[in-house]
Amino acid sequence: MNRNIARAVAAVVAAVAVALPAFAGAYPLQVARNVMMYMALAITWDMLLRSGQISFGIAGLFGLGAYAAILGVVRGGMPVWLSIPFAAVVAAAAAFLLGFLILRLRAMYFSIVTLALAEMFRIVIHNLHDFTGGPEGIVMPAGVIFGGNAAALYWLTLAGLAVALAASWWFEKSRIRFALTAIGNNEISASSSGVNIFRWLLVAFTVTSGIQGLLGGIYVQSYGFATPDGVFSADFTLLPLAMALLGGMHGTVGPVLGAVLLGLVSEWLKLKIPYGHLIVYGIIIIIVILFMPAGILGLARKMSRGAEGGKS
Amino acid sequence: MTKLSTTDLLCRFSGLVAVNKVSFAMDEGEILGIIGPNGAGKTTFINLVSGIIMPTAGRIEYKGRDITYLPAHERARMGIARTYQLIHPLENLSLVENVMVGAIFAQGQGLKTARRTAEELCEELGLSDVDRDTARLSILETKKMEIARALANDPEVLFLDEVMAGLNADETHDLIATIRRIAVERRLAVGVVEHVMGVIRELTHRVIVLEAGELIAEGPYDEVSRNPRVIEAYLGGAA
Question: Is the model's pLDDT at B22 over the cut of 70?
Answer without folding.
Answer: yes
